[in-house]
Design brief:
Length: 413
């Protein structure tokens, strides 16, 4: 047969064939030019289903070729045959092998549904169970669909890779095409997709929590923001059970006992996560007091870029960061650098006030929307304002009633 003969190229079927590398294609062309097209092209009626590269080369050089016909019940059967042919290739990427194996699963499902519709039209509609009822025993069961384990075996990969591949195929088709071409690994593609999925879910969770808190806030602000004029010890003695404590106690030496008070209260309340900002002048003693009652986990760096450096005269250091001591079980991963926006020091509401941007970074990094966050050293109320904005409930206190009234005014806006 000459290349001018009637031959149909189906784009959908052609897409099932992994492309040859430039070197492989060049070698195939060299072989055909030297020896002719020795292997016949395979057709289903007038549609080419095997030999697309040979057909292109023969057409280019006007080289004769032979064809053979295969008979199939449907296009889905054709796709299964083509995929089985390609699964035998050894030079394919793992992503291509998985793509072929998963595609075969979809084809088997399509064949089974078509058979049911043909035999029982009224029961073959979408949503009808694939399980045969007692009166349907004349109908053969649907073709066995590969389980994830069987798909992995067919593709020669692990079941874990199949699971990752399915997520990438569903959520990021363009990224999956890159994986098939070997431009990115399945693992790295999945990591990117997983990160995007988590970001989307976090966004939905935040929006839901914010809407709920806003609705409750309009009815009764105390239901989402509990502010009390009392000491840290009195607050915990009241029986509160926060999901996290994020606080910034006073740093001067005379206030060191409050760190012990804080640790004792958090221990009694069994707080899962405790994050305590501290100055560095008395850091060893602060750590000692907290660690006596709480399980140390890590130290975060709270960055204060721009013109926010503090001069520590005793140590002769211009410091642009603060340690945030983290206590509790390691239940969630987090990054250990939180950052305030440049020149964002906010001393409008308290002499020792922190920026909303920096506290927001800590709250988002360490807690989840809907959780109850506690700050027993409220000061100007920045933590309360941030928590409500980020869909967290809040409870906090300060020994100065004026600070409580000021915070109530801030959160009521």
């Amino acid at each position: 047969m000459l290349p001018t003969a009637n031959m149909t190229i189906d784009p959908e079927l052609k897409a099932l064939i992994p492309p040859l590398s430039p070197d492989e294609l060049a070698q195939l062309e060299t072989n055909i030019l030297a020896d002719g097209c020795r292997e016949p092209l395979v057709c289903w009626n007038d549609i080419l289903i095997d030999g697309h590269n040979r057909f292109a080369i023969c057409s280019k050089h006007n080289i004769p070729f032979r064809t053979i016909q295969r008979v199939f019940e449907s296009k889905a059967h054709v796709r299964i045959w083509m995929r089985d042919n390609q699964l035998g290739r050894r030079n394919l990427s793992a992503a291509w092998l998985i793509d072929l194996a998963i595609g075969k699963k979809a084809d088997l499902i399509e064949i089974g549904r078509a058979k049911r519709v043909a035999t029982f039209p009224e029961k073959g509609q979408k949503g009808f169970s694939n399980v045969l009822s007692p009166g349907d025993r004349t109908l053969d069961p649907l073709p066995k669909v590969d389980t994830r384990q069987e798909i992995a075996k067919a593709a020669g990969v692990s079941t874990g890779q199949i699971g990752m591949a399915e997520q990438v195929m569903k959520k990021a088709p363009k990224l999956w095409e890159k994986a098939k071409q070997g431009e990115v690994s399945i693992k790295s593609a999945y990591a990117k997709v997983k990160k995007e999925i988590k970001a989307e879910q976090d966004k939905r969770d935040l929006a839901e929590a914010q809407n709920q808190i806003d609705a409750e806030k309009r009815k009764n602000i105390e239901s989402v923001c509990d502010l009390r004029a009392c000491s840290c010890a009195d607050l915990f003695a009241s029986g509160i059970r926060p999901d996290a404590v994020i606080t910034d106690p006073p740093y001067p030496h005379e206030f060191l006992p409050v760190f012990t008070e804080l640790a004792e209260g958090c221990k009694a309340a069994e707080v899962p996560l405790v994050a305590v900002m501290s100055g560095q002048s008395y850091l060893p003693e602060v750590i000692q007091r907290l660690s006596k009652h709480l399980r140390y986990r890590w130290t975060l760096a709270y960055m204060t870029p721009g013109g926010q450096a503090v001069q520590q005269w005793q140590a002769k250091v211009n410091t642009s960061w603060k340690p945030v001591l983290l206590f509790g079980e390691a239940l969630e991963w987090f990054g250990d650098v939180a950052t305030s926006k440049p020149n964002d020091n906010d001393k409008r509401f308290h002499t020792w006030g922190q920026s909303e941007s920096g506290i927001a970074d800590l709250v988002e990094r360490l807690t989840k929307p809907g959780q109850l966050v506690c700050d027993p050293f409220l000061g100007g109320g920045t933590t309360a304002v941030v928590c409500l904005a980020l869909g967290r409930r809040f409870v906090g206190c300060d020994i100065d009633p004026a600070h409580i009234q000021q915070t109530k005014a801030r959160v009521a806006r």
